[in-house]
Amino acid sequence: MAKASIKRTYFMSDAYMLEKAYYIHSCQTHDLVDFKAFAVKFD
After folding, report:
1. How far apart are CA 6 and CA 14, in angstroms?
2. Contact at 8 Å (CB) between 26 and 35?
3. pLDDT tens digits for range 4-22
4. Model-level pTM?
C-alpha cells in the first residue's frame, strides 16, 4: 500500500505550528466567556 502524502496549509516548522496552536488554545480557554459573547459558535 502506498504511503499517503500530507499537504500542509502552513509554511513553518511543525514544532512552531504546534507552539502557536497551543498558545491560541490557551488564550481561548482563558477568555472563553468573551469568545462566547463574540460568537456563539465558540461554545
Report:
1. 12
2. no
3. 888 888 889 999 999 999 9
4. 0.60
